[in-house]
Amino acid sequence: MNIISWNVNGLRANVKKGAFDWFLQKSPDFMCYQETKVHPEQLDEGIRNPIGYNAYFDHSKLRKGYSGVAIYAKEKPEKVEYGLGVSEYDQEGRFLAVFYNKGLIGTKFVLINCYFPNGGGGPDRLAYKLRFYDEFLNYINRKRKEGYEIIFCGDVNTAHNEIDLARPKENAKNTGFLPMERAWIDQIIQEGYIDTFRYHNPNKINAYTWWDMKTFARERNVGWRLDYFFISSTLLKYVEKSSILANINGSDHCPIELILK
User: Fold this and answer.
1) Which domain range does residue 95 map to?
2) 155 is an active site residue
3) Stretch 51-55: mean pLDDT, rounded?
4) pLDDT above 90 (res 251)
5) Which one of the listed residues 29, 58, 155, 252 is annotated catalytic?
6) Mean pLDDT over all residues of the chain?
7) Residue 54 dihedral angles phi and psi, to the nearest 5°
8) In the sheet that 193-195 helps form, which strands lie side by side, from edge to edge?
9) What are the pLDDT digits (tens) for 62-88?
């Protein structure tokens, strides 16, 4: 089973760049998009309902052209949840979860696609991000207690450790690398969830998923690793590969891929 996650910074723009064709040719079992910036009715039929996939969308209820996530799944899930179930966190269209009781990897699991808030824009927004983090952790822990194995992916909007960004010292006081943001990822790991890429590549340097396009940072590989696949530790035996597809263009982020055997 293979899953791809990608912050596309606008799904319609990504489509125009030919990157949706890349997805269809790649033909993963799941395609998880973040920052789609679109309501489903704004998409052409071939994008909204591509042949061979069941498509699910969560979008901003506050304004168009902002936030949004989508999951394209080959196998129809038993259940889909839109949002964390808390109004404060569900208005921006950041969360989708698809549930499976059998098949695929032979165990009961939930796949969650989340576009976590950015902490920029002042202390109120940083506080919102941290509250969202806490509510998300509560959600996945509840689902784990209900018997689901957890797979979650998306743009977490935080680089975990110094190895995960090109210039850690220069960014030590910037959102996305603040101690309280990084501490949440520490907590995720302490509670039994695995950062699949770093687990399999503990010392790999210069491995990033986002670059500032205004400064041509991608050409110089001055980036941040902001996009992750986390899994329940009990799923680790199924992981065949967790990789960053840095050669794929179409956004200021690149796709990441998780392959489970």
Assistant:
1) 2-260
2) yes
3) 98
4) yes
5) 155
6) 97
7) -100, 125
8) 79-82, 95-100, 109-115, 149-155, 227-232, 193-195
9) 888 999 999 999 999 999 999 999 999
Longest dimension (CA), the chain: 47
Can you give the chain as a three-state secondary structure string?
Answer: CEEEEEECCCHHHHHHCCHHHHHHHHCCCEEEEECCCCCHHHCCHHHHCCCCCEEEEECCCCCCCCCCEEEEECCCCCEEEECCCCHHHHCCCCEEEEEECCCCCCCCEEEEEEECCCCCCCHHHHHHHHHHHHHHHHHHHHHHHCCCEEEEEEECCCCCCHHHECCCCCCCCCCCCCHHHHHHHHHHHHCCEEEHHHHHCCCCCCCCCEECHHHCHHHHCCEECCEEEEEEHHHHHHEEEEEECCCCCCCCECCEEEEEC
Q: What does the alpha-carbon distance between residue 43 and residue 54 come to, in Å, rounded to a whole number?
A: 15
Q: Which CATH number belongs to the domain containing residue 15 in this structure? A: 3.60.10.10
Backbone angles phi, psi at 64, to 5 degrees: -80, 160
Q: How many domains does one find in the chain?
A: 1
pLDDT for residue 64 = 87
Write b or e for each residue in 23-48: b if 16 or more Cβ atoms lie within 10 A of its Cβ, otherwise e.
beeeebbbbbbbbbbbebeebeeebe
pLDDT in tens, 102-124: 866 788 999 999 999 999 989 99
Instruction: Quote the pLDDT of residue 103.
Output: 65
Average pLDDT in the 184-203 region? Answer: 98
